[in-house]
Amino acid sequence: MKQYPSRVGIGASSILMILVVLTLTLFGALAFVQARSDAALTERTALSAEAFYDADTRAQQVIALVDETLAGGGSPDSVDGVTLQGDGVYAFSIGSFDGHTLNVAISVTDGSCDITKYRYESAAEWVGGSESTLWQGD
To answer: I want to staple 129 with a disulfide (CB 3.0 to 4.6 A). Which of 46, 80, 113, 133 is the partner?
Structure first.
């Protein structure tokens, strides 16, 4: 009787090779998508940090002007953008190019100023979802 070579071994190894190639292709595509996502996040983080430090620098310049004005015997609200809030507390805001605002409040006592508020906040007003999207309980 004549024996024929088995084709089962060839077919199984081909299927296994196809599955390995598909799996490696899938992992490669997922790694590429993750790398692009990480690069975009890094770019946004760098822009946000740059915007904060730019606003911080300009706020420190205003505080230095207020110090100079106080040393010269002037009033802090004579510095452009600084307004009196009451009881020796003055405030000003510095906008940044990423849609945030650095809000600063300073307290003036005995010819010197102390920073009482230094908050970097979103300039846009938060708009919540409608009441129908929130769970109201039983």
So the answer is: 133
Asked if 105 and 89 count as a contact pair (C-beta separation under 8 A), the reply is yes
Identity of residue 17: M
User: Contact at 8 Å (CB) between 127 and 111?
Assistant: no
Cα atoms in the 13 Å half-sphere on the side-chain side of 53 = 6
**pTM exceeding 0.90:** no
Structure-token pair, residue 50: 């740059």
CA–CA separation, 123 vs 19, rounded Å?
Answer: 52
CB–CB of 52/94 below 8 Å? Answer: no
Q: Which amino acid is at 136?
A: Q
pLDDT at 130: 63
